[in-house]
Amino acid sequence: MKKFKSSRESRVAITELMLPSHSNFGGKVHGGHILNLMDQIAFACASKHSQSYCVTASVNRVDFLNPIDVGELVTLKASINYTGKTSMVVGVRVESENVTTGEVKHCNSSYFTMVSKGKDGKNKRVPGLILKTKQDIRRFARSKERKQSAFHRDSKYESTNFKVNEFLEFLEGENVKMDLD
């Protein structure tokens, strides 16, 4: 296995026609179906980079920007944005295309943290990432910062560290009623 790979070596794209069976009660494609496709392409990209079985550790921020209609083509593109020792951040972009008008809409971008697993089920080291462009450096730095922010945020709100009095003012003006015991 290579020690380092470029993101181009593991890029993956799929296109799928959205069928009535993919729709929700509102007549648009169900978000859960899109999430399933996103997870599949993130797995494919991470497995291709690491040459191993991968599992989803987390999904960072899923914003549905535009609805997808039945009959549209949905294209998902995935690439490795960041590599740690055993984990990778896979950037996933979702676009829909109206086949009759040719209009393309950006529907979603999200970031999946995938962990490489060995045959023994333990975390397995992944190849590092070769950064070739400014865009590669931007994506890597953004993913690293996102990872650090999540760690800080999670530790800040742990029950053993949380100090209620520091957050009472923060909650003013929110749609809550405090009835503390």
UniProtKB/TrEMBL annotation:
GO terms for molecular function: fatty acyl-CoA hydrolase activity. Its EC number is 3.1.2.20. Transmembrane segments: none annotated. InterPro entries: Cytosol_ACT, HOTDOG_ACOT, HotDog_dom_sf, Thioestr_dom. Keywords: Hydrolase. It comes from the Bacteria. It is an enzyme of class 3 (hydrolase). Residues 8-120 form the HotDog ACOT-type domain. Belongs to the acyl coenzyme A hydrolase family. This is Acyl-CoA thioesterase. It comes from Flagellimonas marina.
